[in-house]
């Protein structure tokens, strides 16, 4: 199934430059004249949604755990435990409300995944110049596997994405509402708090690159004890014994390459809008977190909040050099990410292989 998904993406990338067709505009909800890329994006997004919604409970490390939590969530609400800060109450409240109105776990999953995919569609429709390429990068960079396993953080990431949109639009009240919602679902969203400064200040390109370069170098010198304290604050304290473990250095080098590529492109074609500036800031935050994961690999979970804007910023940069002269270079870039995709499948850290639809293993919709 995952190989089929990959080849569908290859087909989409090949034909996405063709003539105009009639398709659905996801931000206005009506038929408009648009490019083939929009139609392909919508179709592949529906394939991703199908893989998420109809998967077996054996797919993903934490799926069984979320089912168990869902079944007892009503008890948390009845006993008042839902309001404990440590339980991150909004997560339990969502589950408790769904359970109390009689929704099955699979129906609850369907609604949650639909909300998350709709958030992606909205954000990419609004900011991505090449939506098919952005979605391709997002899937290749393990986000789909993570969504299959990390249901709670996925909801938090969705609110985090809406938070980014509100910051880019300069809407202070919405920014705070979405940030609070993300934190009350998963405490790791505290990593988003410092970004509120972007409502008041946008760094220049030179400042951005200087701060980003220094930060990525300094993270390699920070003692493990400090990294552990940060991990504890972000609710990874149960993994404290894993501080000595780190993300694969080759994986980190991919992100460093992406950063160098973006610097090269923007040096030739400077930022024109605040949207481009802030998307690049989010891009470099993601790269910084991946560098930090060299010390403690679970910090890479924080990077999932930023992978959607990272994929947009990078695909938009690729779009700027998208001409016949640079076609070979772009093909090589996308092949590198194909290697990322198949390497993550082989490692199977999140237990997404083998993939089964729920009906193929005798599960019922309940």
Protein described:
With 366 residues, the chain is mostly helical. Helices cover 64% and strands 3% of the residues. It has 16 helices and 2 strands. It has helices spanning 2-15, 36-53, 63-78, 89-100, 105-127, 131-140, 143-149, 151-169, 172-185, 205-219, 224-233, 249-268, 274-292, 300-303, 307-320, 327-347; strands at 20-25, 30-35. The chain has a two-stranded antiparallel ribbon with strand order 1-2. A hairpin with a 4-residue loop joins strand 1 and strand 2. Helix 12 packs antiparallel against helix 13 (274-292). The radius of gyration is 20 Å and the shape is globular. The two termini are 24 Å apart.
Short description:
The chain is mainly alpha-helical and 366 residues long.
User: Helicity, in percent?
Assistant: 55-70%
Backbone shape: globular
Give the strand order of the largest sheet, numbering strands 1, 2, ... along the chain: 1-2
Number of helices: 16
Q: What would you report as the Rg, rounded to the nearest angstrom?
A: 20 Å
Amount of beta strand: under 5%
Which regions are unreliable across 5 or more consecutive residues at pLDDT < 50?
19-33, 236-246
The structural class is: mainly alpha
Termini distance? 24 Å
User: What is the makeup of the main sheet?
Assistant: 2 strands, antiparallel
Number of strands: 2
Global mean pLDDT:
78
Order of helices and strands: HEEHHHHHHHHHHHHHHH
């Amino acid at each position: 199934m995952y190989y089929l998904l990959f080849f569908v993406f290859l087909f989409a990338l090949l034909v996405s430059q063709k003539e105009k067709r009639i398709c659905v505009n996801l931000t206005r909800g009506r038929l408009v004249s648009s490019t083939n890329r929009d139609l392909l994006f919508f179709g592949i997004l529906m394939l991703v949604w199908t893989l998420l919604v109809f998967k077996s409970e054996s797919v993903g490390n934490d799926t069984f755990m979320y089912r168990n939590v869902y079944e007892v969530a009503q008890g948390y609400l009845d006993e008042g435990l839902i309001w404990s800060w440590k339980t991150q109450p909004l997560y339990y409240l969502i589950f408790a409300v769904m359970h109390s109105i009689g929704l099955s776990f699979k129906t609850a999953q369907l609604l949650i995944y639909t909300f998350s995919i709709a958030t992606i569609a909205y954000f990419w429709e609004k900011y991505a110049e090449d939506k098919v390429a952005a979605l391709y990068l997002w899937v290749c960079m393990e986000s789909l596997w993570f969504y299959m396993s990390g249901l709670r953080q996925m909801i938090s990431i969705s609110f985090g994405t809406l938070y980014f949109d509100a910051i880019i639009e300069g809407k202070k009240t919405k920014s705070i509402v979405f940030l609070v919602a993300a934190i009350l679902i998963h405490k790791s969203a505290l990593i988003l708090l410092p970004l509120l400064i972007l409502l008041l200040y946008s760094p220049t390109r030179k400042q951005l690159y200087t701060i980003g370069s220094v930060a990525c170098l300094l993270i390699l010198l920070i003692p493990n004890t400090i990294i552990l304290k940060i991990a504890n604050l972000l609710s990874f304290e149960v993994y404290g014994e894993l501080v000595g473990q780190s993300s694969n250095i080759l994986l980190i080098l991919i992100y460093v390459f992406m950063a160098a590529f973006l610097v090269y492109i923007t040096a030739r074609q400077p930022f024109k809008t605040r949207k481009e500036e802030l998307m690049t800031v989010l891009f470099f935050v993601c790269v910084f977190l991946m560098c930090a994961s060299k010390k403690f690999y679970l910090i890479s979970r924080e990077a999932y909040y930023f992978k959607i804007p990272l994929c947009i910023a990078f695909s938009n940069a690729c779009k700027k050099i998208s001409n016949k002269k640079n076609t070979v270079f772009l093909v090589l870039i996308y092949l590198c990410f194909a290697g990322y995709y198949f390497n993550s499948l082989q490692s199977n850290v999140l237990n997404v292989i083998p993939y089964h639809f729920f009906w193929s293993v005798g599960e019922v919709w309940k």
